[in-house]
Design goal:
Number of helices: 4
Structural class: alpha/beta
Radius of gyration: 20 Å
Number of strands: 9
Distance between the termini: 61 Å
Strand content: 25-35%
Order of helices and strands: EEEEEEEEHEHHH
Low-confidence stretches: 1-11, 20-28
Length: 178
C-alpha cells in the first residue's frame, strides 16, 4: 500500500522544488507574514447563532457546518429533495469596536436552510452561507429571510447576551429586528 500525505506526495518524493502551494489561512490573531499565500480571514470576532422555530442559541459548530441541527444531515442544493423540512437559519454575528473601543454587534446576516431530521436530509446553498458570512464580517445587516418570530428570538438573544453591546449597535440592526 502506497502512503500519501495531504499534498498527494509519497514520503520518498519529498516536496516539489520551486512549486508554491495555494492555501487559505484562517486565523484568530494577527499574521505579520506578507509573502505568498498570506491572505487571511480573521474569524475571532465572528459568532454563529442558530434560529430554530422561535428559539435562538449560540452554536459555534455552524462555522464548520457542524451545528447541532446540521450534524448527521446530508444536504442537497435542491429544495424539492426536502419536502418535510423545517426552516432553520444560521445567523452570522460579527462584533466590532466603536471609536471608544467598545464592542457592538457590527454585522448580522441570516442564511436559510431546511432540516428533516427523520429523513436525515437538508437543503442549503453553501455559497449563500459563505457569502453572508463575508457580508457579516464586512459589517452588513441582512436579515430579510427571517420571519417576525425569528427576528424576535434573535433580538432577545442579542439583547440578553450583552445589553451594552446591543445598546451600542446600529439603529439599522435594531430596526431590522423590530
Amino acid at each position: 500500500m502506497k502512503r500519501v500525505d495531504f499534498q498527494g506526495q509519497t514520503p520518498q518524493d519529498g516536496p516539489s522544488v520551486g512549486k508554491k502551494k495555494l492555501s487559505l489561512n484562517i486565523v484568530s490573531g494577527k499574521n505579520e507574514h506578507r509573502g505568498f499565500g498570506s491572505g487571511t480571514i480573521d474569524l475571532s470576532q465572528l459568532s454563529s447563532v442558530i434560529v430554530d422555530g422561535d428559539s435562538a442559541y449560540l452554536d459555534m459548530g455552524a462555522l464548520h457546518a457542524k451545528s447541532k441541527v446540521e450534524r448527521g444531515i446530508k444536504f442537497s442544493v435542491n429544495k424539492d429533495d426536502v419536502p418535510n423540512g423545517r426552516p432553520c437559519w444560521v445567523v452570522w454575528v460579527a462584533v466590532g469596536r466603536d471609536e471608544a473601543g467598545e464592542k457592538y454587534y457590527a454585522g448580522v446576516t441570516s442564511c436559510e436552510m431546511l432540516i428533516d431530521e427523520e429523513a436525515k436530509r437538508g437543503w442549503k446553498i453553501l455559497a449563500d452561507h459563505v457569502n453572508r458570512m463575508d457580508y457579516a464580517l464586512k459589517r452588513r445587516i441582512i436579515l430579510d429571510n427571517l420571519g417576525a418570530a425569528q427576528r424576535a428570538a434573535l433580538r432577545k438573544l442579542l439583547e440578553e447576551r450583552d445589553p451594552d453591546m446591543w445598546r451600542r449597535s446600529s439603529d439599522e440592526l435594531k430596526s431590522a429586528l423590530a
